Description:
CATH topology of one domain: Rossmann fold
CATH class of one domain: Alpha Beta
Number of helices: 10
Distance between the termini: 37 Å
Mean pLDDT: 89
Oligomer: single chain
Low-confidence stretches: none
Order of helices and strands: EEEHEEHEHHHHEHEHEEHH
Radius of gyration: 17 Å
Strand order of the largest sheet: 6-7-8-3-9-10
CATH architecture of one domain: 3-Layer(aba) Sandwich
Amino acid sequence: MSTPLLSLSAVTTYYGQMRILEGVTLHVDEGELVCLLGGNASGKSTTLKTILGIVRPRAGRVMLGGDDVTGCSVPDRIARGIAIVPENRRLFGDMTVRENLELGAVLRGGEKLDQDLDRVHALFPRLLERRSQLAGTLSGGEQQMVAVGRALMSRPKLLLMDEPSMGLSPALVQQNFQIIKEIHESGVAVLMVEQNATMALSIADRGYVLSTGEIVLQGPADELLSSEDLKRAYLGR
Length: 237
């Protein structure tokens, strides 16, 4: 059996005295698209922060490619091939689109920068048109393109996405998920935190469901879509 690209083993995380995650175990294999579902305050974003190293678990381990990175810094984990598209995008609004994209390549030294820009522009032609525009003046959909493009500039092995559909119109949500599917099909593994369970599972290989910091459901995406428990809890059916 091959070693997962990412695995969390019995991870328990606290903020102060408040327990946020309890015994979370999950994994993402190379090239997989896995979604992490759950309602507000279920622990989804804390899981991503734990993977990145922003939050350190009180118990359990975080493994990347078979290496224990539980005690490693955020830059070290990024250097090992993790990138994130954060919730609310978090661009540098007073910098141009191109400058924001170039920041994604900083930790790898900016090698072959033009090739990576060409790849991003192929996915998002609008960003080539807007390359000299200040990122803070873009529409919400365009800012999401920049956030995804910036993450891809690091050539990640694993792309973390935190609520990629948040704040987008229905048409842009469809477009956004199509782009995520294309990124996955190019060979990049994706772990996507998302409240839109139906859309996320429609493009995912597998899924996990968090509730009050614990994994309560997991399995292949098609099985979760037809799960009565998931429908009652998250799809309102």
